[in-house]
């Protein structure tokens, strides 16, 4: 079943549904192994891009886990980061000092969002803070940042689907595809 209206704007499929499932299984197994003795593990999804990945990952993790969400904004014009991070939905937990947090992100680009959030949560007193991203574009880093769990390293291409958007569209595609540049150029 395809979503032909959206499929038309995709230049090439980068990761199929099957490839994504394999990688979420691998990351869930790593989390199970690393957090076996955690007393309070929290998967913290960053809205909105991480929701689909979060949904698949949480089903595959077998250690007891809570979920929560934060919402931040960093993009100003669709495909280029503004450099400023705004917290639009904060994490309000009285038990933060007892939480081992794994931040769940869709993609790391400049590195600004995750480096800011890790610092923010550590300053807030979290017991530990780790990071997990489905996709990583290491060639685009502005701020040095290395995530703890990575699905795939990808080249410098603008990708959509599986939660990732361009101008709030394409999140519902079940695979990850490279968006045709003429969709966002000449805008
Ligand atoms: P960073 O702060 O520059 O690392 O940006 C991370 C955020 O930028 C991600 O959570 C995405 O929302 C967005 N982003 C970066 N690259 C892409 C892309 O190729 N497609 C869709 N969103 C992206
Ligand atoms: Mg986004």
Can you offer a commentary on this structure?
The chain is α/β, with parallel strands linked by helices and 187 residues long. The chain has one domain (5-184): Rossmann fold, CATH 3.40.50. The chain contains 5 helices and 9 strands. The chain has helices at 4-7, 17-34, 51-60, 112-123, 181-184, and strands at residues 10-15, 41-47, 66-75, 81-89, 100-108, 128-136, 149-153, 159-160, 176-179. The strands form 2 sheets. It has a 6-stranded mixed sheet, sandwiched between helices. Strand 5, helix 4 and strand 6 (128-136) form a beta-alpha-beta unit. It starts with a helix and ends with a helix. The structure holds inosinic acid and magnesium ion.
What is the secondary structure topology, with strand pairs?
Elements: H1 4-7, E1 10-15, H2 17-34, E2 41-47, H3 51-60, E3 66-75, E4 81-89, E5 100-108, H4 112-123, E6 128-136, E7 149-153, E8 159-160, E9 176-179, H5 181-184
Parallel strand pairs: 2-3, 2-5, 5-6, 6-7
Antiparallel strand pairs: 1-9, 3-4, 8-9
The protein binds inosinic acid and magnesium ion (MG).
Inosinic acid binds at residues 49, 74-75, 81, 105-113, 158-160, 164.
Radius of gyration, in Å, reads: 16 Å
Bound molecules: inosinic acid, magnesium ion
Write down the domain tally.
1
Structural class: alpha/beta
**Range of helix content:** 25-40%
Intertermini distance: 30 Å
Spans of 5+ residues with little confidence (pLDDT < 50)? none
What summary fits the major beta sheet? Answer: 6 strands, mixed
Strand content: 25-35%
CATH class: Alpha Beta
**How would you write the strand order of the largest sheet?**
4-3-2-5-6-7
Mean pLDDT, to the nearest integer, reads: 94
**Total helix count?**
5
> Strand-and-helix sequence, N→C?
HEHEHEEEHEEEEH
Shape: globular
Number of strands: 9
CATH topology: Rossmann fold
Named at the architecture level, the CATH assignment is 3-Layer(aba) Sandwich
């Amino acid at each position: 079943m395809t979503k032909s209206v959206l499929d038309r704007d995709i230049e090439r499929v980068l990761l199929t549904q099957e490839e994504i499932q394999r990688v979420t299984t691998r990351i869930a197994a790593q989390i199970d192994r690393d957090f076996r003795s955690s007393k309070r593990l929290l998967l913290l999804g960053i809205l909105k891009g991480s929701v689909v990945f979060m949904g698949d990952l949480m089903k595959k993790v077998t250690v007891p886990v809570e979920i929560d969400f934060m919402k931040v904004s960093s993009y100003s014009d669709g495909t280029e980061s503004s450099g400023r991070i705004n917290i639009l939905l904060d994490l309000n937990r009285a038990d933060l000092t007892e939480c081992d947090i794994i931040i769940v992100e869709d993609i790391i680009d400049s590195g600004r969002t995750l480096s800011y959030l890790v610092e923010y949560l550590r300053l807030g007193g979290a017991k530990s803070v780790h990071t997990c991203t489905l996709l990583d574009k290491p060639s685009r880093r502005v701020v040095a940042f290395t995530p703890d769990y990575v699905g795939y390293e990808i080249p410098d291409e603008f990708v959509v689907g599986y939660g990732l958007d361009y101008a709030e569209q394409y999140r519902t595609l079940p695979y990850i595809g490279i968006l045709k540049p003429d969709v966002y150029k000449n805008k």
